[in-house]
Amino acid sequence: MIITQTPFRMSFFGGGTDVEAYFGENSGAVLSTTFDKYCYVNVRHLPRFFNYSTELAYSKMERVNSVEEIQHPVIRNAMKMLDMHELRLTYEADLPARSGLGTSSSFAVGMLNAFYALKGKYADKRKLADEAIYLERVLCREAGGWQDQIAAAYGGLNRIHFNAEGYEVFPVIISPQRKKQLNGNLLLFFTGFTRTSSEVQKTNGLAGMEEKLSREKFPLLKEIYDLVAEAEKVLTDESVDLDRFGVLLNEEWKLKRGIGAAVSTQYIDLVYEKGIKAGALGGKLLGAGGGGFFLFYVPPAHQKQVREAMNDLLYIPFAFENTGTRIIYYTPESYEPGEPERHSVKENPFVKK
User: Fold this and answer.
1) Distance (Å, whole) CA 93 – CA 130
2) How much is the pLDDT for 208?
3) What is the bridge-based pairing of β-strands 61-64 and 28-45?
């Protein structure tokens, strides 16, 4: 039996520039962190006592006799990709799915980590990120960027740089005291809405893989990209007032709203205005937009007022984390494969021949 623990992420700056159609021609970058809310994937081989060969428990239950019968596209394609059979897989999470925290990608990374461990193989963070990107963006044909899979695999506070050659992960070097101060100045609230990032990306013209990114959005994305370096400098240069980070979040939110109609709603705009009037310096809706979790940067003197202004939303305390996906329980088991199923899988461009 294998149990993996994989964190969710919050993206501060650069969202949208991690879409391949953009960074394939322009540099992209995001500034993000993972935090102490996780998804858990439990995997073992299913004993052969049942009239089904695979059992999956997530938001629904599936019991099937063939991988091809699996309805969940990410699980189905991952099992085909890694030639997995006769499994019992369960998924649990600290926060709801489809809420702007990269939950689907955290699940993909955690599941791949568990599958490799069940096969008795080690997969490093780069391999897990690469294969999760391939799984979601190519095999499942889901629209979106690359940052979520990378953040979930690596963990921590990072600047992730994208270009035509791929990506690089650079940890943000920040003193423990300043990092603690940043964590303390961020307040997280749940709006109650959920939606898939893929749907929002398509609505906003940021699909990336199958649909060409609208070039009219390139200048706006360049401005969003430029904020990443400025925000990183705020964190790393202790001579700069950390509150500047909140001011930049406000600038980023205004730019992000210009990407497409699906980023915000009248209700979301009202929530944001209430937060700013109560003393927040800036904030953003996490993820592609349209609902989910709202993050505000609030100096301590105004946090009580902001929390009172958000009393109709659920407040979520959190702390930054640094580990990324990891195996928290590992018990090897003997498994003799039965009659193999034949799978047809696209070639993985991340695997070098």
Assistant:
1) 23
2) 41
3) unpaired
CA angle 165, 26, 283 (to 5 degrees): 110
Identity at 113, one-letter amino acid code: N
- pLDDT value at position 264? 72
Distances (CA, A) of 286 to 65, 162, 167, 217: 38, 20, 22, 20
Buried b (16+ CB within 10 A) or exposed e, 313-339: beebebebbeebbeeeeeeeeeeeeee
Other beta carbons within 10 Å of 341: 16
Tell me the C-alpha distance between 208 and 214, whole Å: 10
Query: DSSP character for 314?
Result: E
How far apart are the C-alpha atoms of 141 and 198, rounded to whole Å? 10
Task: Tell me the pTM.
Answer: 0.89
Write down the residue that tokens 């904020």 correspond to: 227
Question: What tokens were used for 257?
Answer: 């709203």
Q: What are phi and psi of 90, to 5 degrees?
A: -125, 145
Per-residue burial over 290-305, b if 16 or more Cβ lie within 10 Å, else e, is bbbbbbbbbeeebbee
Q: Which residues are 92's β-sheet partners?
A: 40
pLDDT digits (tens, 9 = 90+) for 208-219: 433 445 678 899
Phi, psi of 262 (to 5 degrees): -80, -10
Structure tokens at 270: 């009202």
CA distance 186 to 275: 12
Per this entry, what is the length of the chain?
353
The residue to which tokens 């349209």 are assigned: 290
Give the Cα separation of 117 and 335 in Å (integer).
Answer: 13
Decide: 279 and 306 in contact? Cβ < 8 Å. yes
Which of 274, 283, 297, 296 shows the shortest CA–CA distance to 252? Answer: 283
Q: What is the mean pLDDT of each run of 10 residues along the chain (353 residues)?
A: 97 95 94 98 94 96 97 98 96 88 95 97 97 97 95 98 97 97 97 58 43 73 96 97 98 85 77 96 79 92 98 96 97 76 58 55
